[in-house]
Design brief:
By secondary structure, this protein is an alpha/beta fold. It is 53% helix and 10% strand. Helix 7 crosses helix 9, helix 8 packs across helix 9 and helix 9 crosses helix 15. The longest helix has 33 residues. GO terms for molecular function: hydrolase activity; metal ion binding; nuclease activity.
């Protein structure tokens, strides 16, 4: 009796499964029948897209053009691709490859082209390009930060201090700090929190830079209406420095003396003077004091490495010259990624010890509505 009941149950289950499969086939048929026909612009992607025509046929054979297109040379590109390939590799054969996704994202960073423009070049819909950029930027941030923006060690900060002394005549300085507004499209339902003193929407990049224009640490994502000093105090790197967890070297004597002084950052008037923060004297204090004027000259000259770093960053990655029309959290990934890629490019220049591939051209007009200084308030 039990064998018959089990047999009936199995037969009933089989029929239910078959009915469910038939229902799925009917639903799929109804959905597919209503689906619009794919535009021939996209079906010809493999044969006519930029990846196949421009990159594979021409750029791969020309190193200079390759670097101009995606800002990295072939060795650097292959290195970056090897880090993120497992994260962005397609699941289906014939889908958009990891290499093409990286090329597309780097081109977006290099030019600031809209998704609609990249749509026509790569023969990929703008909606799917947005998903690709989001996926690639998240993977780049995850894999590049541990290599190019790690927590500095005490020995590294000592070496940076030596560079500041040798190059800029500022002793015991382990970095220069400054912030810049990065222009963005107004986020939905954000009110005025991203609205800055220059009357546009922005997010803030606060960075510590070494003597060779490389980023030591960055903080992104603060609202455009905030000032340097407030952002620094609430940032993760600011809290570590204030609490002694940033591996800052111990106090050391000034060159040629026995006077012990702590290691410090140099900033502008927006930052509050502190044990770990040095800034210039106010202008009315230096008018009749030559020693203070010399001090201000050296501090301001050394602090220019932040301006140089931001200038190089925006000139190489032109996405910073346009209002970035993506979500704020994705914009954070974008900014941190280009800071890591900037360090990659600076490392290559310093190792080769030659003329940098991207030289800052002072004759070219600077962006007037992006990458501008923060409001000078909050310091004391």
């Amino acid at each position: 009796m039990s064998d018959n009941s089990n047999k009936m149950k199995r037969e009933l289950l089989k029929r239910l499964i078959e009915d469910e499969e038939e229902d799925d086939e009917i639903i799929w048929f109804l959905l597919s029948s209503k689906r619009k026909k794919v535009d021939s612009l996209y079906t010809s992607r493999v044969e006519e897209g930029s990846y196949q025509i421009l990159i594979k046929r021409h750029l791969n054979a020309k190193e200079l053009k390759f670097r101009k297109y995606c800002r990295l040379n072939k060795t650097q590109f292959k290195f970056v691709l090897s880090l993120i390939e497992n994260d962005i590799r397609p699941m289906k054969k014939g889908s958009i490859t990891a290499e093409e996704k990286l090329f597309l994202t780097l081109r977006f960073l290099a030019t600031g082209e809209t998704y609609a423009s990249l749509d026509f070049n790569y023969r990929i819909s703008a909606s799917y390009i947005s998903r690709i950029v989001q996926q690639v930027l998240a993977s780049l941030r995850k894999n590049l930060v541990p290599i190019f923006l790690p927590m500095p060690t005490e020995d590294q900060l000592k070496q940076t201090s030596g560079h500041f002394w040798n190059r800029w005549n500022v002793p015991n300085c382990f970095g220069a700090i400054d912030g810049k507004h990065v222009r963005i499209k107004a986020p939905q339902n954000s009110g005025s929190i991203f609205f800055n003193y220059k009357d546009y929407y922005s997010t803030v990049l606060l960075a510590i830079v070494d003597a060779n224009c490389k980023f030591i640490a960055v903080d992104v994502g603060s609202y455009g209406k905030e000032g340097d000093s407030g952002i620094f105090k609430k940032s993760a790197m600011g809290k570590r420095i204030c609490s002694g967890q940033f591996n800052v070297p111990q106090s050391a004597p000034l060159p040629g003396t026995d006077i012990l002084t702590p290691h410090y950052l140099i900033g502008d008037d927006a930052f509050a003077l502190d044990v770990y923060m040095m800034k210039p004297y106010y202008r009315n204090h230096v008018r009749n004091d030559r020693d203070k004027a010399i001090f201000n000259y050296r501090i301001c000259r050394a602090r220019r490495v932040t301006e140089n770093a931001f200038g190089l960053l925006s000139q190489v990655f032109r996405v910073l010259y346009t209002p970035i029309a993506i979500k704020p959290e994705l914009c954070d990934d974008l900014i941190i990624t280009i800071c890591c890629l900037h360090n990659l490019l600076r490392d290559a220049y310093l190792e080769n010890n030659g003329i940098p591939y991207y030289r800052y051209d002072r004759k070219k007009p600077k962006p007037t509505e992006n990458m501008i200084p923060l409001a000078r308030r909050g310091g004391s």
